[in-house]
Amino acid sequence: MKGAQAILEFLVQQGVDKVFGYPGGAIMPLYDALLDSPVQHYLCRHEQGAAFAAIGYARSTNQVGVCIATSGPGATNLLTSLADAKLDSVPLVMITGQVARAAMGSDAFQEVDVLGLSLSICKHSMQVLEPQDLVPCLQKAFQIAREGRPGPVLVDIPKDILTGLVPASPEACKDYSIPEHSDQDLQVANQLISSSERPVLYIGGGVGMANAVAELRDLIQRTGLPQVCTLKGLGSAESEHPLYLGMLGMHGLAAANLSVQQCDLLIAVGARLDDRVTGKLDEFAPHAKLIHIDIDPAEIHKRRRADVSLLGDLKRILPMLGKEQVKQPWQQWVSDLKASKAFPYAEDNSPGQIDAPQLLRQLSDMSADDAIVSCDVGQHQMWVAQHMRFSQPTCHLSSGGLGTMGFGLPAAIGAQVANPGTQVIAVCGDGSFMMNVQELGTLRRYQMPVKILILDNQRLGMVKQWQELFHEERYSETDLSDNPEFSRLAAAFDIASDVIHCRSQVADALARMLAHQGPYLLHVQLDHKDNVWPIVPPNTANHQMWEQPK
Amino acid sequence: MNYQLDMLLSDQPAVLERVLQTTRYRGFKVDSMQMQPASKQMRVSMQVSGQQPISLLTSQLHKLYDLASLECQAQLARNSELQSA
């Protein structure tokens, strides 16, 4: 069997029936073999788009996403997505073509050292140098992508290995040994929870990735712990729970940040105390002891010393944690704080500028419970995180660690491929949307019913907000008032669209968008003066956040 | 602080790059390095220095799939200076 066929046969064995990619010279034998394979390939319009689609596929299913690109520029175009998947722990296998072995190292056409480029931005990477190593490398790649803390793996394959004969039977891989906590640490953790007066559960993306949402909700049910979520943790806890406080951190909700700052015990579950979460680290949760629960030993004590750490699979650990109800006075304090700091959502159909938080809340109320929402990066991303509610972490796709503009549209495409019957909405900023706008071509090609909502303030809104607040209103290169007319852009791809600018248009426009059968673009014109509140200024403790000026 | 790191690594392409890149990125400087083939593996000893807690580096080195074993010992800075003098 030729190498190209062996790859596709291996993918079928792994249960992979959908991949994303873009063809080119060195990877051409694999594209030739695709014609005779049951694996369905989705052609995106840029390798970065293909890789983000694979990320959307992976994040909306918790399965390994696969993308394919050619050597040289094809491979370098993948790198941003590779780093994105690394920082957000997304299980991904990237297959890149490489020039034939005889030409390697000669600066051949479209030759680049992608193995060298990949080293610091992936979980692991390999270059196949012998035919017999091809299938074992792929097997190892899938295992590494999935095991422990998930992550992306790159496999670089020279063209002559794709065209030459390779043995097909994979070698057995070594089993992965999950790190284990001690019984004593578990006891200490439970004692800390019992003796604490003011505990808070701090939920990260690890919960969803460990398929431990049910176990987390059960823990919350039996203990009544107040809960805060990271950007990636959103959807893990039930948003209707009376002591669910929403996202914490730089643009976290006031009640979430103030509760953490007041707590005497912080229970971090699948979270890494990222700088966007903690604000000024030495003033983060200053009265709290820390229980840190994670599968990755490298996260323990990395940013803050844990009083006790529990390493291992969250799905197994959470049921052993917390046996009794949290003390009532603390629950009452948190509940009162939540009520006093709640956003004043009010349906207002009068003429006037559209309020993005209100619109997103309406969208959240009107969309399906299992709707998948992807977003780009910037102000709109924070508004989505603050104001939309998610039934599962797989319903919220947002570039957290790397913060990559242009993530939203291709990630939505990947999520729609993985979940063909589910409502998928890409909430984009006008700046971010233009970064992978070519993926409108992918939507058109496959007629996927993705809904695109562009929140357009004709600015690079988040950078503008920082220029306004922290750079003496010196607006450098953030004016995008020469944006294209987005509805005409949609029309060029045969995508239906609408434009709104006034509050009174919102409800009907959202209803029309959600009811539309095919792809749809809703262009929402906003006032560029609107900012995201609260905000924790740089090098400031989270309790010193600035709230919306009255 | 100065540390001695003794590693057993799979003899894979880019393995030294991975170790060196991780060391630099996590805030340590390589003061000296020796390597020796050992069957399909290689034994690498490195003396590194840096201000960060060494666990920041060792916990990341442990994540490298080509690392079979790692031992780390703190060294007195003065000894190291004498050795390099």
From TrEMBL, chain A:
Residue ranges occupied by any Thiamine pyrophosphate enzyme N-terminal TPP-binding domain in the UniProt entry: 1-115
EC class of the enzyme, as a word: transferase
Pathway the protein contributes to: Amino-acid biosynthesis; L-isoleucine biosynthesis; L-isoleucine from 2-oxobutanoate: step 1/4; Amino-acid biosynthesis; L-valine biosynthesis; L-valine from pyruvate: step 1/4
Required co-factors: thiamine diphosphate; Mg(2+)
CDD domains: TPP_AHAS (cd02015), TPP_PYR_POX_like (cd07035)
Assigned keywords, A-Z: Amino-acid biosynthesis, Branched-chain amino acid biosynthesis, Magnesium, Metal-binding, Thiamine pyrophosphate, Transferase
GO-annotated molecular function: acetolactate synthase activity
Residue ranges constituting the Thiamine pyrophosphate enzyme TPP-binding domain according to the UniProt record: 376-524
The keyword Amino-acid biosynthesis appears for this protein: yes
Chemical reaction(s) catalysed: 2 pyruvate + H(+) = (2S)-2-acetolactate + CO2
Textual note on the cofactor: Binds 1 thiamine pyrophosphate per subunit. Binds 1 Mg(2+) ion per subunit.
SUPFAM superfamilies: DHS-like NAD/FAD-binding domain, Thiamin diphosphate-binding fold (THDP-binding)
Statement: the UniProt record of this protein carries the keyword Metal-binding: yes
Family label: Belongs to the TPP enzyme family.
Protein name: Acetolactate synthase
Annotated source species: Bowmanella yangjiangensis
UniProtKB/TrEMBL annotation, chain B:
UniProt-listed Pfam families: ACT_5
UniProt xrefs under InterPro entries: ACT-like_dom_sf
Superkingdom of the source species: Bacteria
Gene3D superfamilies noted in UniProt: 3.30.70.260
GO molecular function: acetolactate synthase activity
The enzyme's E.C. designation: 2.2.1.6
Keywords: Transferase
Listed NCBIfam families: PRK11152.1
Stated name of the protein: Acetolactate synthase 2 small subunit
